[in-house]
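[SOLVED] Need 3D model of a two-part complex

Original post:
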Amino acid sequence: MNVLILGAAGMIGRKIAQRLAAESRIAGQSLETLTLVDVVEPGRPEGFDGEITTEAVDLSAPGVAERLVGQRPDIILHLAAIVSGEAEVDFDKGYRVNLDAMRALLEAIRSLPDYCPRFVFASSLAVFGPPFPARIPDDFVPRPATSYGTQKLMCELLLTDYSRKGFVDGVSLRLPTICIRPGAPNRAASGFFSGILREPLAGLPAVLPVPDSTRHYFASPRAAANFFLHAAGIDTASLGQRRALIMPGLSATVADEIAALDRVAGPEAVALIRREPDQLVAGIVAGWAEDYEATHARELGFEAEADMDAIIRVHLEDETGAAS
Amino acid sequence: MNVLILGAAGMIGRKIAQRLAAESRIAGQSLETLTLVDVVEPGRPEGFDGEITTEAVDLSAPGVAERLVGQRPDIILHLAAIVSGEAEVDFDKGYRVNLDAMRALLEAIRSLPDYCPRFVFASSLAVFGPPFPARIPDDFVPRPATSYGTQKLMCELLLTDYSRKGFVDGVSLRLPTICIRPGAPNRAASGFFSGILREPLAGLPAVLPVPDSTRHYFASPRAAANFFLHAAGIDTASLGQRRALIMPGLSATVADEIAALDRVAGPEAVALIRREPDQLVAGIVAGWAEDYEATHARELGFEAEADMDAIIRVHLEDETGAAS
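Solution:
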């Protein structure tokens, strides 16, 4: 199989590339070539005997989608995007990168005869907007509250229509909030959900801006990478028009996070969390969804962590090299 | 008020133009100018003292949206589209006219400072796909089964996002099947719903290809024109992200149609209907929705006919000049 990853320098794209390089298999078949593309040069994963190509390029620039798709990869994993905050501030850039680049990719695929690759698209639960029920069913109406969510939903619709017409074989994955995000603290409003675990696990202080009762919906970086690798191999014949799937996740409160941290790393780790209520952050987070049923995706074999202890273990194993 | 109608040569566009010209008012204010645009030259309605401009132009051609919007109309009614069957056959043309032209219009509006027109978009119940419940609630998930439905839904999403950002003040109207369609029989699969009334009312034979129990969802051409004129004046502040509205309609069976025809025009009219079962047409129609709640739109004051007798009366009054 020849695999193209778009957005391969991102946090999940890197994980997928590392897993593919290590396993040399995808969708039940052997991996032949791996092409890694992002706006910055992606790292080159180790452990793969086949051909790896890395390239830094703006996917939304003229001709780029055509050239990349022209290699006829069997599987395309598309994770390249402008994030939510930036798409809200830079309206033009958001539509250009998040929507127009997708359409250019799909048009490039459609233009090639006898070619119908599996296309796995990184969508988002941001396709949904408030008000939310306590637990969101698969058939909840997508009503995005941001330009980012609008763009992701429009891409899902394009992918489903191009798939219905037989031009491509697409699946859209609506991803939960990733926890524990590796790396340095960032300024995203959701950053504390990872920070209150990641920083204390490394012996560093962390700030908690919301009440302990705050509930949200998580999957680990490893689970997210698994979603893409699983989606690359599922039988899509049964999906019909239901090609946009809510991914499974763990619904947990901040209190659940802290209790798990206590069990895994002890009270001295918990003591590194400093409560600094921030009304702005608390207000933003209060508008977010708390839980999803994700029934269809679970039936299709997608899996996420069952508790916060597992999410912490994944972080220790994958990011710090610690044994479980 | 300065009003621009796109798709003004179409069946509903013509009705709206005639109504506006006759009433010289829209959204509670006096009408100053009326600009009528379509791919063929729209007719010039009578009875209006103000300025009427008509123009034949391809809305999807470069620069056209910018030029039309550059006149800064206060209200834009956008009904121009490639119909469902053609969008299915000509994939490029469907996306170009039904999606790209909408985006060009919205971009042209956004580019003008201190300008935020009311924009009423002709969407369709084709944003929904099967399987359907017997009566479809407002919160039924749109899952289009055609490229046309996909394009209409993407336009709704764009209009809602541009409205959220304050670039435009948009409302999308998901229109029922129009009955009784005036004019000659056409080859649309839904054509018989109008034909079995329109033709016998004119003393002509009509073919019925489906069982009498077949149920569908209708509004008259007059009701459809009313939807646009009403939408031009509603208070959109309460809509939030719910700017795509299922329009009210009448859920009725073929038997209901025939019973109403009997009451209005007598058994000699009913005798002109010839039953010629057509498995292909019956199969297509069996996949269509039978009824919608349209609760939100009714609360907002949108109204459709309450029975088939009223739909026939509207046809006689508006198309044949007969008294009710």
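Edit: The mean pLDDT of chain A is 96.
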